[in-house]
Specification:
single chain; alpha/beta; two-stranded antiparallel ribbon; 12 helices; 13 strands
């Protein structure tokens, strides 16, 4: 009678037990097969998700020497090119000459992405990038930094000379803007994700809203923005206005109106602070999602975001997302307090020290500046003081008109 294992291919040559090399080999093949099948399913789902996104190759981005006729015909408010006299030009040139001597940092452990908020009333042109946040994920140090780059910062835009930084997006979209920022701040930056006000409203609504704390003055100004935006969107603005200061679970219109406010506190500096506050509250809501909710949120949001992030990079970020959400988050704003001059309404940072401080936040120990924004443990300063250029909102009419200049 033959022994039990005589015809078993897993037996060793002496029929004294299983051949563990063969067992291991077959087991590995089975495991690899399962992984490949599972990976194929995941890739199929992920690839379909990526196809929903508004990916735009850099070569396909609209580039203009001046704003298109469509934008001017619709009376869209635009930034006029800055005209500098010889003294101002020499001052800026001298300040920026030090930038060329600084090397651009390339670090495989750091992924840089620019978040762009675009100011435009329609999609016939690129729009001005009135909100710019440099997001840097440092995998080695398990830290994410979010640094607001103020729109009025003076930069050298190729083909256009010294202008405000927000004009770069209008001229050449994300590719030109990231090039300018990379060349100026010496960070390895080529990726961006952009939304306009209408897209941002939809994203917050898809999220289910965010909790925001506002003062009476902030609510007063935000209400004016709500009336203006609702008039453009064909909505009844009075369905959205808030009664006074407090903590509110804000929908998209209310959150974006709050983030656009530059008439309370320290002008545009306080506005960048509010924008980071809204982003931090969005992240807080995302952290509370389970896997199914997160997948649904991403599916709904992707079509609203214009970006140039390659699919392979998105895959890498998605797989690391649970870990990244647990990283330490730090925030800051450039120009730094007391480290810039003003020339012809443009902000001219002290570039050498600015770049050094920014690089330390991204690549070094993660320390942040002594900006007024960073007081009180990085919480938004609850300001009830209007800026000097506040025009007044008390007489806003129901149709959204009034004497405020919405910017």
């Amino acid at each position: 009678m033959p022994r039990r294992y005589d015809d078993n291919p897993l037996m060793n040559e002496n029929n004294q037990g299983p051949n563990w090399k063969k067992v291991l080999g077959i087991s590995l093949c089975i495991v690899l097969g399962i992984v490949m099948i599972g990976g194929g399913v995941i890739y199929y789902v992920g690839h379909n998700l990526f196809s929903l996104s508004n990916y735009v190759a850099d070569n396909d981005v609209q580039k203009v020497d001046q704003l298109p006729a469509e934008a001017k015909a619709q009376e869209i408010e635009t930034e006029e090119p800055v005209v500098l006299n010889e003294s101002e030009l020499n001052s800026i040139h001298e300040s920026m000459s030090s930038v060329s001597a600084v090397e651009t940092v390339k670090d495989d452990d750091v992924y840089n992405l620019l978040l762009v908020g675009v100011d435009r009333r329609d999609k016939t042109w690129n729009g001005n990038s009135d909100s710019m946040m440099l997001v840097s994920i440092n995998f080695a140090k398990k830290r994410v930094s979010v640094v607001s780059l103020m729109r009025d910062t003076c930069v050298d835009i190729p083909g256009h000379g010294y202008e405000k930084m927000n004009a770069a997006y209008a001229y050449g979209g994300g590719p030109l803007l990231t090039q300018v920022i990379s060349d100026t701040y010496k960070v390895d930056l080529s990726r961006y994700a952009a939304v306009d006000f209408e897209d941002m409203i939809d994203i917050v609504d898809i999220l289910g809203g965010v909790d925001l704390e506002m003062t009476d003055a902030e609510v007063n100004v935000a209400n004016g923005y709500m009336l203006d935006m609702c008039d453009t969107l064909g909505l009844n603005g009075y369905d959205y206005i808030l009664p006074g200061g407090g903590v509110y679970h804000c929908n998209g219109v209310q959150a974006v109106a709050y983030a656009r406010n530059r008439f309370v506190g320290n002008s545009d500096y306080a506005r960048t602070e509010r924008q980071r506050y809204v982003i931090s509250q969005i992240i807080a809501e995302v952290k509370r999602m389970d896997a199914l909710q997160l997948a649904q949120f991403v599916t709904n949001v992707l079509p609203l975001v214009t970006h140039n992030v390659e699919e392979s990079e998105i895959w890498d970020l998605v797989t690391k997302a649970p870990e990244i959400l647990q990283y330490t988050f730090v925030q800051d704003r450039i120009p730094y307090d007391n480290m810039y001059d003003t020339v012809s309404e443009m902000l001219v940072p002290q570039w050498e020290t600015t770049i050094e401080k920014l690089h330390n936040t991204i690549y070094g120990d993660g320390s942040i500046s002594d900006n007024s924004d960073n007081d009180k443990l990085n919480k938004v300063e609850r300001s009830n003081e209007y800026t000097d250029d506040y025009p007044g909102l008390q007489d806003m009419e129901e149709d959204g008109s009034g004497d405020i200049e919405i910017q």
